[in-house]
Amino acid sequence: MGVRLMVVDDHRLHAEALASALKLRGHRVLAAAAPAAGAAELVISRAPEVCLLGTAAPAEPGIFDPVVRVKRERPQVAVLVLGPVPSPRGIAAAFAAGASGYVRHDERIEGVERAIMKARAGEAAVAPALLQGAFGELLNPAAQPDDEGQRLLQMLTPREVEVLVRVADGEDTRLIAAGMGIAPSTARTHVQRVLMKLGVGSRLEAAALAARTGLLDRAGASGG
């Protein structure tokens, strides 16, 4: 039997793609909303069985406040956090807020579905590899992994970064061209260069990679 779900993510393209994939697998997706700031109100009003809540910064203070509110007002709702490879602090913060599990943004749909079923059954849903990585970081804090988001950001020109941000917001070529004041053919070329530099084959993959690595947050910080 399908699960009544909600998908809430800052990046609309990723949210809608995941919602569509879950619908195809027989689940009832109540909403796919972009602004995480309004997640709590939406979840409380709709009361799904499981909510998938996306975040690009799992270690940021207060990022899981919506989870706290949902669990306080709708304790029967299981919340699964979708995010990049988390630090131990990120995983701990998610569970401390009341989340039922943590799933990587780039997890295959089968893995997401397994996590959903576990969360609905009241079980903790975290991939063993994530836990192993978190414990490994705790045991070896001196080992600093490469910052993939920063590395990818340095590969892109400022123009290409703007294109990537617009792609992640779900804009098509026409909207990108209009928003940047360039010809559609130029926008299309920029998009192709972004995909090539990131080593992905589609706009959806580019948006997912940017979300997983925190690249978009870094782009916003450097631009502001």
From TrEMBL:
Residues 149-214 form the HTH luxR-type domain. Signal peptide: none annotated. Residues 4-120 form the Response regulatory domain. InterPro entries: CheY-like_superfamily, Sig_transdc_resp-reg_C-effctor, Sig_transdc_resp-reg_receiver, Tscrpt_reg_LuxR_C. PROSITE patterns: HTH_LUXR_2, RESPONSE_REGULATORY. Keywords: DNA-binding, Transcription, Transcription regulation. Gene3D superfamilies: 3.40.50.2300. It comes from the Bacteria. The keyword DNA-binding applies. PANTHER family: DNA-BINDING TRANSCRIPTIONAL ACTIVATOR DEVR_DOSR. This is LuxR C-terminal-related transcriptional regulator. It comes from Streptomyces ardesiacus. The lineage of its organism: Bacteria, Bacillati, Actinomycetota, Actinomycetes, Kitasatosporales.
